[in-house]
Amino acid sequence: MEVDKGKGEAEETRKVAEADRDTVTLKSSDGKLFEVSKEAAARLSTVLAGMIAGGSIDDNGTDLKQIGSEALENVVDYCNKHANSIPSAALISSSISFNTAPFKEPEEWERKFVDRLSHDALFDLVEAANFLGMERLLDVTCHKISEMMKGKSPDQIREVFNIKNDYTKEELEEIRQELAWAFYDD
Amino acid sequence: MPRRRPPAGLRSDEATSMVVLMEELVEEILLRFPPAEPASLVRAALVCKPWCRLISGRRFRRRFSEVHRSPPMLGYFCNLYPDAGNPNRNKDAGPVSRFFPASAAYPRHPDQANWSALDARHGRVLLRSVRGNPRISVWDPFTGERWELPPLSDTWYEDDEDHWNAAVLCAATGGGGCDHLDCRGKPFLVVYDLLVHLLVGDWLLERANLCCSET
Which residues in chain A are contacts of B43 at CB distance < 8 A? Predict the structure, then answer.
């Protein structure tokens, strides 16, 4: 009885200690551990916010089996950088004019953050952002990928996205003739 | 947690290292294309058939309009005599309603010979014929669809044709009205306006008659 009580207390103490920590530990699909600011994780990811609020964060590393270590490292890096950044006047004003602005433009540091990534890393990151419900990171990564597609021909886009062309030559020619204006600068 | 969907687009068998994006992510990326560059979306639609279905689907078009709010001006119509300065021009040649692009987008038939544009709204152009009894036609320059309206009554143009005008409006009323972000395929309304001149003593009075034709 005494032992059980001791165990219960120890468990309680561990939970309190965990709740007091200002970071959470996340574990990638390949078993690597990453520390991230609890405040930033809860603010930037709806999924992590739900896990923190629901007490399903594991002190020894919360399993994120769908996310590889490279993508998780980028997610954590983004959260930590975001925690330290002060929103610029441009971001604040664009949030005010949300109804007229298509999407919030990425901040300068966010641009630099995604510019250094390889195609594969960027595509992994956009999926991780989607999985974790990170709206802002999803916005930044999707914006970057749409910029990568700018001015590219269908062939070049297929190459970047690794997509097989399922049109016949005749089908393509017919559409190109019908919408010739879209191909002037090919 | 977000649900995983099958990838949009078919993956080539040779390379397996690259990530294939889920359809919902492809949609998020394509939504961020600038509306003033419609050619980018046409090119993306030619990448593969699933992307084409995605881009031309009602859901995507609706979201694209909602996100970007103000539709871009693709161009304008000008009623002109293309050969006006040429002394050898064919005197019988009628005016042309011509599309001048303000973006890369260009309709397949930019010239409407012997028609003049009366109005353009929500992607539709209202044309009237310039020869014989006026005929009225509503035209979507980008899909090429055209709707001929019933001929006008003789009383509308027998005196002076300049005293009537018409406009084409969106008539969609379902679901609490239309926000005019995606009116294509919805009903439209043509409103005619006839000014009747009445001479009473030394006073010239004008009276406007409105009449509508819904299609």
Answer: 152-154, 157, 182-183
Q: B23-31 and A119-131 helices cross at what angle (nearest 10)?
A: 100
Considering only alpha carbons, which residue of chain A is nearest residue B31?
A: A146
Per-residue pLDDT reduced to its tens digit, B133-192: 778 899 988 888 899 988 776 666 655 555 678 888 888 766 666 777 777 777 888 887
Task: Name, in order, each residue with C-beta under 8 angstroms of A184's C-beta and a sequence gap of 6 or more.
Answer: B39, B104
CB contact under 8 A, A126 and B2: no
- Cα–Cα distance, A38 to A48 (Å, whole number): 9
Asked if the structure places residue B134 within a domain, the reply is yes
Do B114 and B191 reside in the same domain of the chain? yes
Q: Which two tokens stand for residue A101?
A: 């602005």
The full set of domains in chain A, from first to last, is 2-150 (3.30.710.10)
Domain count, chain B: 2
A63-102 tens-digit pLDDT: 898 899 999 999 999 998 887 765 554 444 444 333 344 5
Co-location of B108 and B206 in the same domain: yes
Give the ipTM.
Answer: 0.78
Q: Of the candidates B1, B42, B49, which has its C-beta nearest A182's C-beta?
A: B42
